Amino acid sequence: MLTYEKKPDSAIAEIVVDGKISDEEMNAVMTAMKADLDKGGRLKLLEDIRSFEGMEPAAFFKDPRFGISMMKGVSHVALVTDATWLRAVAETFGFVSPVQIKVFERARISEARTWLEAAA
């Protein structure tokens, strides 16, 4: 499952991953996020990775292109996960990314939201 939600008067959007990501879900998230970015301004993302069981092949090949093209509209990412390998990937990517990335354990999701709210 992959979902995307952004409240109308907020710059913070939340993406939830829980299980396997379908092509249909990826298309819906890409469309919604692009619509928010087209309104102007920059987004702050909370990525709540509850579990990750892979992606359908069509979704997998969209993800890198989508991520690279959309990251110019994102200023901060709070990655919420207990998966050690995802934490390592995010921390490594953070060294070369213009986006500020901070990783939080799932039990600290409220702290991740607070960090995004305070981020300038």
Provide the low-confidence segments as ranges: none
Q: Can you summarize the main beta sheet?
A: 5 strands, mixed
Head-to-tail CA distance between termini:
30 Å
Average pLDDT: 89
**Gyration radius over CA:** 13 Å
Instruction: Name the beta content range.
Output: 25-35%
Give the neighbour order of strands across the main sheet.
1-2-3-4-5
Order of helices and strands: EEHEHEHEH
Q: Compute the number of strand runs.
A: 5
| Helix/strand class | alpha/beta
Number of helix segments? 4
Morphology: globular
What level of helicity do the residues show? 40-55%
Describe the structure.
The chain is an alpha/beta fold and 120 residues long. 42% of the residues lie in helices and 34% in strands. The protein is built from four helices and five strands. Strands 1-2-3-4-5 form a five-stranded mixed β-sheet, sandwiched between helices. α1 (23-38) runs parallel beside α2 (57-70). The longest helix is centred in the N-terminal third of the chain and has 16 residues, at 23-38. It starts with a strand and ends with a helix.
Give a quick set of tags describing it.
single chain, 120 residues, alpha/beta, five-stranded mixed β-sheet, 4 helices, 42% helix, 34% strand
Give a short synopsis of this structure.
This protein is an alpha/beta fold.
